Amino acid sequence: MKKFIFTITFLAMCVGAFAQNEAEIKKKTEELTTAKAELAAAQAKIDQLNAEIQKLKPIVKWKMGGYQSINFNQGSFTNWAKGGVNSVSVTFLGNLFANYKFNNWTWDNNLDMSYGVIKNKGQDLRKNEDKIDLLTKVGRKASKRFSWAGLMRFESQFAEGFDFNSESTDLPVISRFAAPAYIKASLGLDFKPNDKLSIYLSPAAGKWTIVNDDSIAALNLYIPETHDNPNFRGEFGALMSATYQDKEFIKNVGLKSTLELFNNFTDPNKPNRKNIDVDWQVMLNMKVSKYIGANLFTHVLYDNDTKIEYDPINKPGVMGPRLQFKELFGIGFSLKF
User: What integer best gives the mean pLDDT of the chain?
Assistant: First the structure.
């Protein structure tokens, strides 16, 4: 009988302890649920405050970089039935950019520079590339993809260029720094559908042609001889500038293409107001290894006011506007920074 009573008592104690633990577990579970809800609410409040603080802070950011490369080209012919001229050339290419953001304001700056020389057998050293192209653009966002913007561009070259078609022993100089130089300034609307493409439209654009050398100005190659000032000419019209840039257009290949169109509303010769100046540049950067790269550059130009000799052999001295095309390809050392 005593054993029975002891067993009943022990079982009752176990049931009581189990019931007490169940109640404690339920209580703690409820407290844990409440704590988790409070933690989630606190985290949401923290995220909200961080977002509000970030909105109040000005967005100030500089993004800078560029690249430089030295390309080499060499050709050699020995007893080559189809003919050819031994040659060697060196071309220096460089680009610098500095882009700035402040709240809804942007300021983009880009400088392209290049200079190259070539030595053909039997000829003196000649330049085959020479460019200075500085562009700056300030914009303020009007919406997600549109910005009001102002653009300014300066174009010229570093060194003297000669007319190698001349029969004179003293080759005439037809270009040097700031002869010619082109300055463009405009106000318009900038459309950026994504980070790679920018299309700028301006109904109010000025273009100034400068020939800061009297002997070159006298040739009337860049400013029409009918203009009263052979050293300086101003034009007013509309401008369209489109830029597409993709650092990884395809694997290990970067692409940059810029197309600029300008129409002069104020040309004294009214038929010329239908003409459009075209400036289209394309650069392909191909990565071979960390420091070895290849570059393909093409440049298409048309300016109705730039006079070029049509056919130096059959029609010597006949000058007029022509479509200009330049292509450069090279392999060499390159460095991005």
Answer: 86
